[in-house]
## 1
Amino acid sequence: MSMRLGLRSLAVVLLVSLGGCDMGSLMIKEHRSPYDFDATIATIIANANARGWEVSKVFNFEKSLLAHGQPDPGPMTVIKLCSPEFASRMFADDDAKFVSVMAPCSISVYEKADGSTFVATMNMGLMSKLMGNDVGPVLADIAADDNRILAFTRASPESSNPQAAAPQVSVSAGQ
């Protein structure tokens, strides 16, 4: 058994043994933003564009749910991002195309009841360890870029300064 396969198997065994635990906190990472809701969205989009990512969609869940007569969840937007470079690397092999179900990458921005803004993403670092072949290293690279795009969420509000000329974001209600 190769070392890589052994580590992957160990990771799967650990995940299965943690089945009674809150798996959501392992699979999804949540960060408090030092900015308000709109500045958080603008900063994510500007940071993603600066790293060569394409913003394929900005989905306003609040607007959509209200339009369908559902209760107001408060401000909640999902930003869909795609890196043409990473997508090309990942989908070059027919055996890896199934991973397209995770594309484009999603970053959720939402306000909680206390008015704080949060950002949530899939834990691509963990996913990279669970996937094999050529997919794992690409997911690891995506995780590294996610960390760079969202680095501002680890800064203190005093040291953070969102760009004065934030990009204009068109938010659509439909998917």
## 2
Amino acid sequence: MKPLLSITTFNIDRYTTIENFLNEYREIGLDTLELNGRVRQHVIDALFPYLYKGEIKISSLHNYCPRPEIMDNGELQLSSLDEETRSLAVRYTCNTIEMAHRVGAKAVVIHMGEVEGLKTLMDMLKDLYRCGEKDSLEFIALKSRLMEQRRKNKAAYVKACEKSFIELSDFIARRNYSIKLGLENRYYHGEIPLVEEYDIWFEQYSQLPIYLWYDFGHGEVQHNLTLIDKYEILERHGERLLGLHIHDCIGIDDHRVPGTGEIDFEFVKKYLRPDVLRVLEYGYGVQPVSKIAEGVEYLKQKGMVK
């Protein structure tokens, strides 16, 4: 089985026609997409003729997709402690799963949510890092405060996450879909899950279609802030690796073209079964198409794709 390389629709907003959008990828030999959370229903409708003709494939959908109008007014969190909001998040995620089945995707990538009230602390920590204060007493104290507040406050949010993915798994089972849910490691330390949540979930809910989706940039940022060990998640749960978001990172600035940053991608290679999905996730500013091609060539040289 040849490993599948796809690219997320990071630049979909630049184009006035689907044909122009797809032409960029045809130039470098890519015919597989991940539809992300900015893609609306009319875009998917425009893609269907190309799907029917076999000109493109969809590897995965990134929740929420198609993007619901309600998302224009705020976030929908599967971890919400407000039951109405959490149930709404589940409902729209079910819509994403339904669409994934329709377009022949293998996976839905999910942000499970967050322990609320911690993003300000994380942003303060990032500011200190950028000022070269990573080894300062202020940085160390702030990091400890962030980690402790997450530990103290996480229980109810983690429980809400569990309720959500159980309901999503029940939906998949009732519909007899083969869709797998990729629970993505996240950028902010207050977000869920960290390795300790993966540990519990993959043991207690091993029968459910929940898997690890590893984002290189997110892992690198938290590793560089000394909040996590980026190797630990894969060392513990590499056998449940469903897919990768591949991009490079310098310090705590990610979504760069592979080969233009500091990530050594070698550490993941021993977990790369042929069926692991590999998705290029570039930042919006990456252009022209030659930059995309450079990243693909670099990954081929590294043996990440063929």
## 3
Amino acid sequence: MTHQEIAKLVTPAAWNGAASITKHTQDREEAVAHALRTIISKFDQWDGRPIEAWANRIARNKAIDLKKGRKREADYEPTEFMHVAEEQPDSADHSKLHAAIDSLNPRKRELTILHYYKGMEMQTIAESLNLNLSTVKVTVMRARQDIRKYLEQNR
């Protein structure tokens, strides 16, 4: 069975599974995309049970994971440090932020840039760099703390 055939077969069930957890279309789409990747990568391990039920369960779990991640991330906004630019609207503001980012260790800097500047989801970063999702989240959180501390010390 090709990837397209698998996707066509399981997408409706995955959509329903994700819809039972989240009401936001974008979150559903993201959960279904994660579910399809999982289903396709583990298709050879499928045990023969109804594939729709399997897809539904995987999508529900992915939606739950996304929802939990959103709650943990809800304590900050990607524009959290924009207040510096609003207080002092000259070009030096951006240089302070860039200097703060440059002061981070290489791992923190890399994850911060991927998440905030490249717009990558933390799950995607974790998968692409072969890291645990919790490692990515903690590192980005600590990087934010370091940036905040740097900006406060260099006002």
## 4
Amino acid sequence: MKRLKEIREKLGYSQDKIAVLLNKTQGGYSHIENGRVKLDEESIILLSNFFNVSTDYLLGLTDEKTPPKITKEAEMLKDITPEQMQTIKIILQIPSSEIGEIRGYAGAVLNRIKKPFEEV
């Protein structure tokens, strides 16, 4: 894993220091950096936390050091029901010139069932 060496050197750590962290010898850690030995999942997570980077970055799967933050909207979609998803698909087909009417109707329904209307 060539990223390990890059991150370690950038932060000023020796191979010995990281080897101790992983409970390995310096030589054993050198084999990891050079790709001769693969790390187990637990060690990858430990190193990503230690270096404060994502596991994907450490593994070379992305150039983003930290994962993108989950937006409020994305968080809301986490628990969406199939019926709600179908409704969203229908709404996405409505021309933007007609969305105001849909929002007005949705607001009225929310008021009727006594739930606060929140802008998304």
